[in-house]
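Predict fold of Integral membrane protein; 61 aa.
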Amino acid sequence: MRALPIALGAIMVVVGAIWTLQGLGYLKGSPMTDQTIWAILGPILAGLGVGLVLVAVRRRE
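Predicted 3D structure, encoded as tokens:
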């Protein structure tokens, strides 16, 4: 049952990266573009995703 947290963590990393790029203005065409809040929340979400993946991989079953 480790596949679910790993997949969720990977999705969190991808979404966090997208939010960061939008917040920094690298991805245009969204109301999120050039908004500082997304440049802050993106790396936080990506970091939590990495943590979730690491915990899921290291968990013994």
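Residues 7 and 53 are 8 Å apart (CA to CA).
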